[in-house]
Amino acid sequence: MRPFLLLALAAPAFAAPAEPARVPVFERMLAFNLPADMVRANDRNNGTNILIEYVPKGQTLANWTRLVTIQAYRGLGRSPMKSGDIARQAFYPASCTSGPIYRDGGERILASGLKRSIIANGCASLPAGAYPKALKGAGEQNYIMMFRDADSIYTLNYAVRGPAFVGKAPPLSVEGGEAILRDIFGEVTLNPIAPAAR
């Protein structure tokens, strides 16, 4: 997994208007509301890993203030590791030396049989080189919805970046990850794609 892509935390700004998005990830369809001002800045799929990133119009992967990320890892769902251990390995901001944040809200089994976890992570002040294109000295917060089925791991992330908040409370609630993700994305579903529609 690529922890540097999953690290993120900071500034506010929920974009209220949103548009329905449907994104195929392997044999499933991820459906959620995408903030209307977000545009796709990255789209990679090598058959085993998927990485899709959205930034506000006019921003880039180097200077974003808000970031929506979709990731999927084929085969990782078969790992004998517990989901909490996979999440910690992927999302704990190990490179953050000033105010690291990490909270795993635990795993729930949804009616569909999918396992889902909500994770919050971040850094009060990013060090240089925390991840490629990290903005040194910025504060970041990231809220991650992680799904697991028998084969794969899928994530939908919302990150915000702004001024450092060393010695202060983070701009957004660390405990409120589920509510924040619901406000941003609405109802999120990850349903199988019918074989005929693939």
Automatic annotation (TrEMBL):
<feature type="signal peptide">
    <location>
        <begin position="1"/>
        <end position="15"/>
    </location>
</feature>
<keyword id="KW-0732">Signal</keyword>
<protein>
    <submittedName>
        <fullName>Uncharacterized protein</fullName>
    </submittedName>
</protein>
